[in-house]
TrEMBL record:
Enzymatic reactions: alpha-ribazole 5'-phosphate + adenosylcob(III)inamide-GDP = adenosylcob(III)alamin 5'-phosphate + GMP + H(+); alpha-ribazole + adenosylcob(III)inamide-GDP = adenosylcob(III)alamin + GMP + H(+)
Pathway: Cofactor biosynthesis; adenosylcobalamin biosynthesis; adenosylcobalamin from cob(II)yrinate a,c-diamide: step 7/7
Alphabetical list of Pfam families matching this protein: CobS
PANTHER family: ADENOSYLCOBINAMIDE-GDP RIBAZOLETRANSFERASE
Origin species: Peribacillus loiseleuriae
GO CC terms in record: plasma membrane
Similarity comment: family membership: Belongs to the CobS family.
Name of the protein: Adenosylcobinamide-GDP ribazoletransferase
Main location: membrane
Subcellular location(s) per record: Cell membrane
Stated role: Joins adenosylcobinamide-GDP and alpha-ribazole to generate adenosylcobalamin (Ado-cobalamin). Also synthesizes adenosylcobalamin 5'-phosphate from adenosylcobinamide-GDP and alpha-ribazole 5'-phosphate.
Keywords attached to this entry: Cell membrane, Cobalamin biosynthesis, Magnesium, Membrane, Transferase, Transmembrane, Transmembrane helix
Annotated TM spans: 37-56, 62-83, 111-129, 141-163, 184-201, 230-257
Amino acid sequence: MSVLIGYLINLQFFTAIPVKKQLPMDEPFIRRAVQTFPLAGLTLGLLVSGSLYVLIEWTPLSLLVISFVVWLLTIILTGGLHLDGWMDASDAFFSYQDKEKRLEIMSDPRTGAFGVLSVIVLLSARFLFIYEIISRMNLDFYFLIILIPTLSKMVMGVLLYTIPLAKQDGLAAFFQRAAKKSSIQVYGLYLIGVLLMAFYISIPLLYMSLVMIIVACIFFLLIRRKSVIWFGGITGDVLGASVEGVELILWLTVWALPYFAMV
């Protein structure tokens, strides 16, 4: 039961999926929420990938229209929560100020020019990758698309417990204090499950899934190092920006895989 409550907490906090229920926010349930971060990502991935399958197989829509609908769905399902973090972190980063000033800029509810420009680039690149992927769609890609938000939420959870807090309030501080580092140990089981499922489907899919996991790990290490240098640690905005950044890199990876497979 506590696992289900933790999962529902994730849906309330990090998605636009309606969960019209007052949920307990005690430490055991927050710990379960952290443990089920990847399951919330899996839910988003299933919705995006499933919608894509329906649009391709059961509608007469053009690839461009399908790409736009899928692209829009990736925004709607999260309610733009992580995009807000991406814009705030971009404004802070491109200010080229010291850590304290960057934290102050991130806390400002106003969005600056750098935040607007950065989100335009992010969303434009995502649309490009989605359109190109759909234009040469195969069954393996449905699985890889499911992996994108699953891995990004996993990276978010590991970042939350391997980086010190940059400030002592906010969403990141709330989750870090309520749970424990041991909460993310279950992520290894998720990865094993992903690889076993990919292996059951096909060996090429297993290799592509491994590439996705390796790419996510590389960018986790990069974000972990740079977030301390740039911001002095982790904040809710930095976590949100990391989710968007990792997802963009994983969309790029899915887009690039066929080119490398043909070499």
